[in-house]
Design a protein that fits this description.
The complex is a heterodimer of chains A (about 800) and B (about 375).
Chain A lengths: L1 E3 H4 L9 H10 L3 E7 L7 E11 L7 E6 L4 E6 L9 E5 L14 E3 L2 E3 L2 E2 L2 H4 L21 H4 L5 E6 L10 H12 L17 H4 L2 E3 L7 E8 L8 H9 L7 H13 L3 E5 L8 E5 L5 E3 L5 E3 L5 E4 L4 E4 L3 E2 L12 E7 L2 H11 L4 H8 L6 H16 L2 E2 L4 E3 L7 E6 H8 L5 H10 L3 E4 L4 E6 L9 H12 L20 H15 L3 E2 L5 E2 L3 H4 L24 E2 L4 H13 L5 E11 L11 E11 L16 H14 L5 E5 L8 E11 L2 E9 L1 H6 L6 E7 H7 L15 E10 L4 H11 L4 E10 L8 E10 L8 H18 L10
Parallel strand pairs in A: 11-14, 26-29
Antiparallel strand pairs in A: 1-10, 2-10, 3-4, 3-6, 4-5, 6-9, 7-8, 12-20, 12-21, 12-22, 13-20, 14-17, 15-16, 17-18, 18-19, 23-25, 24-25, 27-28, 29-30, 30-34, 31-32, 32-33, 33-34, 35-37, 36-37
Chain B lengths: L10 H10 L4 H27 L3 H12 L4 H8 L8 H30 L23 H15 L3 E2 L5 E3 H4 L19 E3 L2 E3 L5 H9 L4 E10 L10 E12 L3 H15 L6 E8 L2 E10 L16 E10 L1 H7 L6 E9 H9 L6 H4 L2 H4 L3
Parallel strand pairs in B: 1-5
Antiparallel strand pairs in B: 2-4, 3-4, 5-6, 6-10, 7-8, 8-9, 9-10
Helix pairs in contact in B: 2-5, 3-5, 4-5, 6-9, 6-11
Bound molecules: zinc ion.
Zinc ion (ZN) binds next to loops of chain B.
């Protein structure tokens, strides 16, 4: 919404600086977006003094002027005939952009250099005269801006209005707020209707067939108008708010729209079949051409203004091409109506049109302003386009909009706001914006909301009026008194913060990627056809194709991030994301929400250690990323953690033989391993990458509290090492589990400290070196005791795994 | 005694075996005297070091004991004349003594050198980078969210969450935004179906919480929100934090108090706030909250469009229609709600100009936080 300061001043006396005024308007809730100098476009148009004028040597209709522009003399080629030596004229200098859009440049016209353009009133949009160059008063100094020379100055105030304040979509609406701020009164335009002759009932009629969509419709007719240009004051007002002047009849309707906020429409009365109006809904599938030339297909929910034959306007949105005011129009019917906001909004949305008119009807116009606006337009039309007003008015109001009466308590107002206002103060704030207020008792007030304030329905709305007019900054800042209640511990939050701590501690940086991805992500991950992650939640109106579905895996985001960084030559990455995936509900119920599962996934690629002068070139491998999962599970104190070779179909993007599934007992937590070559290729990646992909919700489920402390043995530990030659296929975990299962109490721990393949060990075998730590909590173990147990252990392991000891060296 | 199973024995075990099987008592005596001599020399040297008074003196002493012709060095040479089986044992002791003395002398030398500011003969290039331990960073959005949530947790607010894919009812209708309301224009919504949307704000969490618990309510709800928008200051996915407090006698002044506390804790105590009237269908009265520009301190700059103020928060008193929707007694309870964009706060706090940086995940960006 834009208004000009000078237009505002027609209705309210403004004696403060416009910057101050703008700030005050913002602080009562009408946010001012910008203050714009109305004549900024004339910055490069200055007063020029014609010091010499001579005929153009190559064109007899042109002359060449030498013009003093204050800081020098410029040659200008000109075709006008109303200028002579000594005249003061506006000259647009190179770089100036005229309202027509034309930019002035230094050029040659028929061999003569021209460094500017002398302008007419119309060319500068400061008047309507285009017959010749504008002659400036003799007192103007060459070189000063032409706006200053003409005494033109105005400021356009641009508002960013909230949708509830439809009353401020007009100059008078803004003026009302200004008056409240400045504690002055509003001057409404004086209405003086010319006497009418022909009674309107004799020449036309209005029938409302859809009163729910059109509660009120009023009309007047002006006969024998003379279509032409509007007077300059009217054009100037329209220009100032960015509207184009069209002709005097249309300009008047636009003027009243901006002045009072009531959209009006003028029909060419003679082109209305049977000279009458019928308001009804359209026939399904009917075609209609609006005055912008677009053919639109209607449906039966859309409200139409029709004549005796068919539609002539899309009600409240746009007129039709057929009944438009044209140069030969002789009589006009002016429509002023109240249309149902929802009806207008639905139609405008459906047809994808948004006009000054629909914008206001959607938000609600003033039902009592209908006839005022109609009268104002009729008056101005007769003034500017001549003609005779038909006497009387048609005002069909089948569904009166009820008056809103609200009771509000001053005490409750103070309680909600935290203020200490007395009843008088509350009344004066409410009255300042034309609310009709009367006290019911010492506390309560009876308020009748004015019809233009469609946003006021409840006591709270009045409390807001009081607060905003008093100023939010005047309400004391306090602190709530509250009961001290501890919120319950949340295991998810606990798990999340522990995970973040562990992973950043391991050198992993957190990434956040969009929740939506491309439809092809599942193909890229090689997910089988029956994988539940292929049932993606689709967005009906995605921004782009690669943001068209909700993700069902975090892995594509990790890989896309790896790709993005690789193009920036960040080739060593340790990243993780903690976020939701979205699984479609199994049923076809359209109103069922998807299952949102939280995942934690990470990726490691490139160097094992940050590259420095100490360490060079070691690459990450499976055991590095597995170590991260170990740390995560240890940090969450997950019981029964175990890894098994990849076996289930859930991780087709990970490489067989280089991937482990991660279990806590029988619960599958996810997988850790190397991404397959094919998947990497699908994401245009070249270097190996390792990833873990774990279900966060299951981690939370398996997470346990910190262990209870155990006493530390006072007695020394003894270690014994043994190397086993076993089949390559034997899994280390199996050996450790077997020893664990033997339940020997004196074994403190068993660890694998070396794995070796190659000579002298025969092919198909490997050497697993184990270190046993023996310890008792009750006594020092003797060598012989330890040796005896160790011998027993060793023999059992040898037998169980069909293992040998290495040949003893000499 | 040996144990056949032990294929990899430690040195210590070997030494232990050697000692235990020393064959001859006489040899032991000779060895013993050399060992005693070594111990005596060690003690003598250590005592001498304690009383030296200068660098030169330390150097002289060092030469006397462990120099090429020093006492210990000489003794070491004599070990070769011992019987073979005793050599290892005595040799080890001699080497240990020598090592201990070297350390003691080095320490003394360093002490005097330090006093005189002398540079030791073998110095490290201490300007070479240290050996790094990788350190991961939390995403700046996470850090900012945590900082905001922590302020409210200290104030006794509980953290809650809700679904990203949300019913139209929770996202709009229960928040007093009916289907054909112009306020829907404020939300460019991603639709999943007619009745399911990607939540356009975190406010639906308010409704879910109020539906499931009665007052008093004190919650803070961080999460993702989605709108059809993409430019230098908008991404189709972004983060918000929503706050809600409902009980008896909560006032607009209290809302001002809580938000002032938040801004002072996230920015600083000097940052002033400005509350101005606005409109949200689910609050009444509603407010936009501006903070004094953190870049120019209110003087006016490009970031604040020369106004000196930055819009960071939307807030207001919970609309009675919302309370009616969840079945709260509007006569008895009042409350406030507020919401803010995390990116906006993080951009101001960290000086980030383009919101899209957050979701590009360029490590060169992430590693700055
Ligand atoms: Zn600033």
């Amino acid at each position: 919404m834009k208004v000009s300061l000078s237009w505002l001043k027609d209705y309210v006396t403004i004696d403060v600086d416009v910057v101050k005024l703008a700030e005050a308007l913002t602080m009562v809730g009408l946010e001012v977006d910008a203050l714009v100098d109305r004549y900024a476009y004339l910055d490069r148009v200055v007063v020029g003094h014609i010091v010499e004028i001579a005929p153009h040597s190559n064109a007899h209709t042109l002359s060449v002027c030498r013009v003093d522009v204050g800081n020098g003399i410029r040659p200008v080629v000109c075709g006008a005939t109303n200028i002579k030596q000594g005249d003061l004229v506006p000259i647009a200098l190179p770089g100036a952009q005229l309202p027509s859009g034309h930019t002035i440049q230094v050029g040659e016209i028929r061999g003569q250099v021209s460094e500017g353009m002398l302008c007419s009133e119309a060319e500068l949009a400061v008047g309507t005269d285009s017959s010749g160059i504008l002659l400036l008063p003799g007192t103007a100094t060459p070189g000063i801006g032409v706006a200053a020379a003409l005494g033109l100055s105005d400021t356009i105030i641009e508002f960013d209005l909230t949708p509830n304040r439809s009353d401020c979509l007009s100059v008078i609406g803004i003026a009302r707020e200004v008056a409240a701020i400045l504690k002055t009164s509003l001057r409404y335009p004086r209405l003086k209707l010319p006497p009418g002759e022909t009674p309107i009932e004799k020449i036309t009629s209005v029938i409302i067939e859809s009163p729910d969509h059109c509660p009120r419709y009023a009309a007047r007719v002006v006969l024998d108008v003379q279509i032409g240009e509007s007077p300059s004051w009217l054009q100037e007002r329209l220009h100032s708010v960015g509207l184009r002047a069209i002709n005097n009849v249309v300009d008047v309707t636009n003027f009243v729209l901006m002045e009072m906020g009531q959209p009006l429409h003028a029909f060419d009365f003679d082109r209305l079949a049977e000279h009458r109006i019928v308001v009804r809904t359209a026939r399904e599938g009917q075609a209609f051409t609006t005055l912008d030339g677009a053919e639109r297909t209607l449906n039966s929910d859309m409200l139409m203004i029709c004549d005796g034959k068919g539609p002539v306007a899309l009600a409240g949105i746009m007129g039709g091409l057929e009944s438009e005011i044209e140069d030969d129009t002789r009589s006009a019917l002016i429509e002023s109506a109240y249309f149902d906001p929802i009806t207008i909004r639905r139609t405008a949305k459906r047809l994808g049109v948004n006009t000054e008119s629909s914008y206001r009807f959607e938000r609600g116009v003033d039902p009592d302003g209908i006839t005022k606006a109609l009268d104002r337009a009729a008056q101005l039309m007769v003034e500017t386009a001549g003609g005779k007003l038909a006497s009387g008015v048609i005002d069909n109001y089948p569904r009166p909009i009820p008056e809103r009466v609200i009771e509000v308590s001053v005490k409750r107002t103070n309680r909600l706001l935290g203020s200490r206002l007395n009843q008088e103060e509350v009344i004066s704030y409410l009255k300042s914006v034309e609310l009709n207020v009367a006290p019911l008792d010492k506390d309560r007030l009876r308020v009748v909301a004015p019809t233009f304030r469609v946003d006021i329905e409840r006591p709270e709305d009045l409390m807001e009026e009081v607060a905003r007019l008093r100023g939010y900054d005047q309400i004391p800042t306090t602190h709530p008194l509250s009961h001290v209640v501890a919120s319950p511990q949340d295991k998810k939050l606990e798990c999340r913060s522990r995970l973040r701590e562990i992973l950043t501690g391991c050198g992993f940086s957190e990434i956040v990627t969009y929740s939506f991805i491309g439809k092809d992500a599942c193909n890229k991950l090689l997910l089988p056809d029956n994988d539940p992650r292929r049932q993606m939640v689709s967005i009906l109106n995605p921004l782009t194709e690669d943001q068209a579905v909700m993700r069902t895996s975090l892995v594509p985001g990790l890989l896309a991030t790896m790709y993005r960084n690789s193009t920036q030559r960040n080739e060593d990455l340790r990243i993780f994301e903690l976020g939701k995936i979205f699984l479609s509900p199994p049923t076809a119920d359209r109103d069922e929400l998807p299952e949102e599962v939280q995942m934690i996934s990470g990726l490691w690629t490139g160097a094992r250690y940050d590259r420095t002068w100490h360490l060079k070139g070691e690459k990450v491998d499976f055991y590095d990323i597995k170590g991260i999962v170990d740390s995560v599970c240890a940090g969450l104190n997950i019981k029964g953690l175990r890894y098994t070779p990849l076996d289930s179909p859930g991780f087709p993007y990970l490489r067989l033989g280089h991937t482990a599934e991660v279990y806590a007992g029988d619960e599958l937590l996810g997988a850790v391993g190397e991404l397959t070559h094919e998947v990497l290729q699908n994401f245009e990646l070249k270097q190996p990458a390792y990833c873990f992909d774990l279900n966060f919700d299951r981690l939370v489920h398996c997470m346990t509290e910190k262990k209870r402390a155990r006493p530390i043995s006072r007695f020394p530990a003894t270690t014994r090492d043994v190397a086993l030659i076993v089949d390559d296929a034997i899994e280390a975990q199996g050996v450790l589990d077997y020893i664990d299962g033997l339940g020997e109490e004196l074994i403190g721990r068993v660890e694998i400290f070396d794995v070796y393949k190659g000579p002298p060990i025969s092919r198909g075998k490997k050497s697993l070196a184990l270190r046993f730590t023996y310890r008792s909590y009750e006594r020092s173990l003797t060598d012989s005791e330890v040796n005896r147990i160790h011998e027993t252990m060793t023999q059992k392991v040898l037998k169980q795994f069909n293992a040998q000891l290495p040949r003893r060296s000499a | 005694m040996r144990y056949a199973l032990c294929s990899m024995r430690s040195e210590a075990t070997d030494a232990l075996c050697a000692m235990r099987y020393a064959p001859c008592a006489m040899r032991e005596r000779i060895t013993k005297s050399m060992k005693q001599e070594l111990k005596r020399i060690e003690q003598e040297a250590l005592d001498a070091i304690k009383v030296v008074s200068g660098l030169t003196e330390v150097k002289t002493l060092k030469a006397r004991y462990i120099g090429r012709k020093g006492v210990v060095t000489t003794l070491l040479r004599r070990i070769s004349s011992l019987p073979p089986e005793e050599r290892p044992d005595t040799g080890r002791l001699a080497n240990e003594v020598r090592k201990r003395l070297e350390e003691a002398f080095e320490k003394a030398l360093q002490a005097f050198e330090a006093d005189r500011g002398e540079i030791p003969a073998v110095a490290l290039d201490v300007t070479l980078p240290g050996r790094p331990l990788a350190r991961g960073r939390l995403h700046p959005i996470t850090q900012m969210t945590q900082a905001i949530c922590e302020v409210f947790q200290r104030l006794g607010f509980e953290i809650v969450e809700g679904p990203d894919v949300e019913l139209d009812y929770y996202n709009f209708e229960a928040l007093n935004i009916p289907r054909d309301h112009p306020a829907r224009d404020m939300h460019d919504t991603f639709y999943i179906s007619e009745n399911i949307v990607l939540r356009t704000h975190t406010s639906p969490i308010q409704i879910r919480v109020m539906e499931s618990q009665s007052p008093p309510v004190r919650i803070i709800a961080p999460g993702k929100a989605y709108r059809v928008d993409y430019d230098i200051s908008h991404t189709p996915m972004f983060y918000q934090v929503e706050g809600l407090m409902v009980q008896e006698n909560i006032s607009f002044g209290d809302l001002k108090g809580i938000l002032t506390t938040l801004v002072h804790q996230i920015f600083d105590e000097e940052t002033s706030l400005r509350f101005r009237p606005s409109f949200f269908p689910f609050t009444e009265p509603s407010a936009e909250v501006d903070i004094q520009c953190v870049i120019c301190r209110g003087a006016g700059c490009r970031v604040c469009s020369h106004t000196g103020w930055l819009e960071v928060l939307g807030a207001g008193m919970v609309h009675p229609a919302v309370f009616e929707m969840v079945g709260y007694d509007t006569e008895r309870y009042s409350g406030f709600a507020f919401g803010m964009g995390i990116e906006r706060i993080a951009m101001l706090k960290y000086g980030i100009e383009d919101i899209r940086r957050f979701y590009e995940n360029d490590l060169r960006f992430l590693e700055q936080f």
